[in-house]
Specification:
2 helices; 93 residues; rod-shaped; mainly alpha
Length: 93
């Protein structure tokens, strides 16, 4: 039984690390994109438009801050529910 708990704990930690790595990569890329777009806008204003709130980099940052935590929470909830159903099915036999 102890082995099953450690297996589940490892799965939770791996899921968390995966989401964290994706969040870091997406946020670094989006921030870099916004920095470049802001510099281009500053130096070539009439020719190059400034980033607007609908810019894809802003959308990625919004997804990182709101979407990824929801996906993480959903994954944890599904894993916990699946573990509970497996336990319940095994216990009734």
């Amino acid at each position: 039984m102890k082995r099953l708990r450690s297996k589940a704990a490892r799965a939770f930690v791996l899921w968390t690390l995966l989401i964290l790595v994706v969040a870091i990569l997406l946020s670094v890329q989006a921030t870099g994109s916004l920095i470049v777009a802001g510099q281009d806008c500053f130096f070539n204003y009439p020719a190059v438009p400034c980033p607007s709130p609908t810019d894809p980099a802003f959308v990625r940052l919004t997804f990182v801050f709101f979407g990824l935590p929801l996906i993480w929470l959903l994954g944890i909830g599904v894993a916990t529910a699946a573990r509970a159903f497996r336990r319940r099915g095994r216990g009734s036999q």
